[in-house]
Structure of 3-methyl-2-oxobutanoate hydroxymethyltransferase:
Amino acid sequence: RDKVTIQTLQKLREAKVPISMLTAYDYPTAVSCSSNSSIDITLVGDSLAQVCLGYKSTTQLTLDEMIHHASAVARGTTHPLLVADMPFGSYHGSMDDAVNNAVRMVRESHIEAVKLEGGEEIADLVRRLTSIGIPVMAHVGLLPQRHVSLSGYKVQGKNVASAKALVKAAKVLEEAGAFSAVVEAVPKELGRYITENVTMPTIGIGAGPWTSGQVLVWDDAMGTWLGHKAKFVRRFANLQTAREMGVQGYANAVKDGSFPDPQRESYTMDEAEWTRFL
Ligand code: KIV
Ligand code: NA
């Protein structure tokens, strides 16, 4: 498949063909996203913190850790547009620091666009990054990097005031140059309203079926672990069960001595050579 560009996404939106985005955190998951021509965008989400690195919150992820993983994802990425989250703190200081950090992500990881959580307060940064050629995907609604201020991971935009604020944020960010926006955990009516009131493609997660596209975290979609499942998650595979069976099978075979098989899974010395050796 041809490389997916910002223009491709705009065309999909116009044709009302849902855009598919999936996260990846390392080379093999990136290859899986790339080997399916129906995946449009690969996202190195900062969910990396929890699902791969065992941190409790995305706020613990460092820029260096993101760059390390995004680089591996880039090595496995072909046609999907490659987007990565700027980690918490890497775009909250001065404008210059934020620009330098975004430049590092592009230059060291070879990602194509950055994703930033926030509303009007980050519009100037979105404008600046866009102006120097770093495309920005906005992220509105539930902002996991602010889960403490938000008193947890809760649905956003449920009352008139917060719904209006979210629509305003999406419009301001689009005006500032964002090429697309993730809309996380909002009522489906609001997901549709935002989508109909901006021209950039919206990518929903827990935002209902009427956004321009959908995104899920790899581990949620593949069932690589079977812990808490948010309402908006659908498990499309159950890799955790397969993995447990694999570990059990291996351990059993080692313990009962059936692995390795002396014929099929072992090397053999030439007989004459072995006789001389002895
Ligand atoms: O970090 C992440 O994986 C994300 C997506 C769920 C949108 O931001
Ligand atoms: Na994220």
